[in-house]
UniProtKB/TrEMBL annotation:
Residues 7-420 form the Enolpyruvate transferase domain. This is UDP-N-acetylglucosamine 1-carboxyvinyltransferase. GO terms for molecular function: UDP-N-acetylglucosamine 1-carboxyvinyltransferase activity. It catalyses: phosphoenolpyruvate + UDP-N-acetyl-alpha-D-glucosamine = UDP-N-acetyl-3-O-(1-carboxyvinyl)-alpha-D-glucosamine + phosphate. The keyword Cytoplasm applies. It comes from Comamonas koreensis. Pfam families: EPSP_synthase. InterPro entries: Enolpyruvate_Tfrase_dom, Enolpyruvate_Tfrase_sf, MurA_subfamily, RNA3'P_cycl/enolpyr_Trfase_a/b. Keywords: Cell cycle, Cell division, Cell shape, Cell wall biogenesis/degradation, Cytoplasm, Peptidoglycan synthesis, Transferase. Its EC number is 2.5.1.7.
Length: 433
């Protein structure tokens, strides 16, 4: 069991170069299977899911040259082959489902284990993906412990209106439509920064996409895609995480950020807890003057709220980070997860530090902040930024704490502990397999 040992109470100081967003990198890696031309990707992070996908590529016969030190990946899928009886896509990685469209386009068949999962965030159905595959002409069959998707000839263009703005389903639609026959239209498309980055990569390959950054995408299918070179942006999740770490410990952390246009709502959310964010010369900095304090709403008979939902709402993935700030801030705040029904069950672990958190229902909690906290041993569920949120609270308290089951952090944040240590944090991994 991987756990973080934390000796908290040290204000973090220094500068951080964040990694790329795994939620952009993973769909881009899946999309590379659509082309037989050589590709060079810059800024590929050394995280577990990247290693798993590159391992799949190697087993399929692709040329894979990955330099984890520099983050440069050279790929060539010219000699790639796929055998549905032999090759399995890993069930423990949610992004596996995005390998289905390129396999259909290249080989007319894909095999997927039938209980694909990611983090522990409640039920995450694959029905929306199955519907997309079928609308493009795919045939979905149940095998023994797996799903087989087949298609005779090129995928056929379609129009589709999603039930909700799902990131992965949007990306799967684009992957199907890029080399499909005709023009396809998706309404209620997800438009998160990582979805936009993925679409820009597809355009670099030669895909014809209209409406990037909006909720309506039109994709005109092309016969084939090309190669090229692509540079990933910094991960806005990791930027926010290190800014919050600086704020909660009373330190001064600056994070490189070349996309400040993604941050107005995030900046306003920081301000609700007494933290001002400054963007200057390609760097972002969290400025805290005095203790963390929940902003009093103009309408005084309501609670300050952080409402998380699909972009351009406040990002759901960042909600745990701000719950940690709410626990440490003076005053009370409500946090509302409008997407996942199992995403707030972990907040009971905060009581082990002495925090007061009231669960309103499966989607809403209230932090009753300003209480004295003490070190603790806590258990994280399999959710990346919950492990980080528990670490944040521990890092703000003098004394030794343990964050157990913290390994999911490695799925999104390479060199997380090394970065923290460079800022002065007293933290280390223990119990690693």
């Amino acid at each position: 069991m991987s756990k973080l040992i934390v000796h908290g109470g040290t204000p973090l100081q220094g500068r951080i170069i964040p990694s790329s967003n795994k939620n952009a990198v993973l769909p881009v890696l899946c999309a590379t299977l659509l082309t037989a031309q050589p590709l060079v990707l810059h800024g590929v992070p050394d995280i577990t899911d990247v290693r798993k996908i590159l391992d799949i590529f190697g087993k399929l016969g692709s040329s894979v040259q990955m330099d984890y030190a520099s983050g440069v990946l050279k790929l060539h899928h010219r000699d790639t082959h796929f055998d549905a009886c032999k090759h399995h896509l890993p069930e423990e990685m949610r992004s596996s489902i995005m390998l289905v469209p390129p396999l259909l386009a290249r080989f007319g068949v894909a095999r997927l284990e039938d209980n694909v999962k990611g983090c522990t965030l409640g039920v995450r159905e694959i029905d929306p993906h199955i519907e997309v595959f079928r609308r493009f002409g795919g045939r979905v069959e149940h095998g023994e412990g797996s799903l087989i998707v087949r298609c005779d000839g090129p995928l056929q263009a379609t129009q589709h209106w999603l039930d909700y703005a799902s990131v992965t389903t949007t990306e799967n639609f684009v992957l199907c439509a890029a080399t499909g026959k005709g023009s396809s239209v998706l309404t209620n498309a997800a438009c998160e920064p990582h979805v936009q980055e993925f679409c820009r990569f597809m355009v670099m390959l030669g895909a014809r996409i209209e409406g990037i950054g909006t909720s309506r995408l039109t994709v005109h299918g092309v016969e084939q895609l090309g190669g090229g070179e692509f540079h990933f942006e910094e991960d806005f999740h990791e930027i926010t995480t290190f800014l919050a770490l600086g704020a909660i410990t009373g330190g001064d952390v600056q994070v490189r950020n070349r996309t400040p246009d993604n941050f107005p709502l995030i900046d306003r959310t920081f301000a609700k807890f007494g933290v001002q964010i400054e963007h200057k010369d390609g760097w972002s900095r969290a400025i805290r003057k005095g203790p963390l304090k929940v902003e009093t709403p103009f309408t005084r008979n309501v609670l300050t709220k952080v409402e998380a939902a699909p972009w351009p709402y406040f990002p759901v993935d960042l909600l745990p980070i701000f719950i940690a700030l709410g626990v440490r801030a003076e005053g009370n705040a409500m946090f509302w997860n409008k997407v996942y029904d199992g995403a707030l069950g972990w907040t009971g672990e905060l009581s082990k530090f002495g925090a007061h958190v009231f669960s309103s229902d499966p989607h809403r909690i209230v932090t009753l902040g300003g209480n004295p906290l003490s070190p603790a041993v806590v258990e994280s569920p399999y959710i990346i930024r919950v492990a980080i949120a528990l670490f944040m609270v521990a890092a703000s308290i003098e004394g030794r704490s343990e964050i157990r089951n913290a390994a999911p952090i490695k799925r999104a944040h390479p060199r997380f502990v090394e970065n923290l240590q460079s800022l002065g944090a007293k933290v280390e991994w223990a119990g690693e397999n």
